[in-house]
Amino acid sequence: MARLDIRTFIRARPEQVWAVISDLSGQSRWMVDLRRLEITSAVKSGVGTVISVTSELFGQPLVRDVMEITAWEPNQRIGVVHRGQFSGTAEFRLEPVAGGTAFIWIEEFAPPLGPIGELGFALLVGPHLRRVFGRSMDNVRRLAEAAA
User: What's this model's pTM, rounded to 2 decimal places?
Assistant: First the structure.
């Protein structure tokens, strides 16, 4: 199982960060690798929302994912299950801290190709995703702090 746990500090209240990350159709404003996002369920926000996305990997639109929101706790947490090319879970967490919010992005999934996929993740994909997700989190920080 591959795991990413990335954290950043944002000088804004959790409510202000939540306003950015919970705007599902507006994720293209901050996710740098997002090429296409479509909410495919009747539910457009909250638990049960299904989202189909195409994301870049190494600059190419290679990742097609279907995610279902499984947790929706305003100002605290969004959880999803991945049902596309990758199976696993992801979570955005917001924790109030002195002077702002800790924004935490956790991904856990099974890379394709078994042990070869695990090695590829460890050597190439994981470090690349840390950089890309870090840039996306910087965008969340900028948007939330501008609203603060």
Answer: 0.91
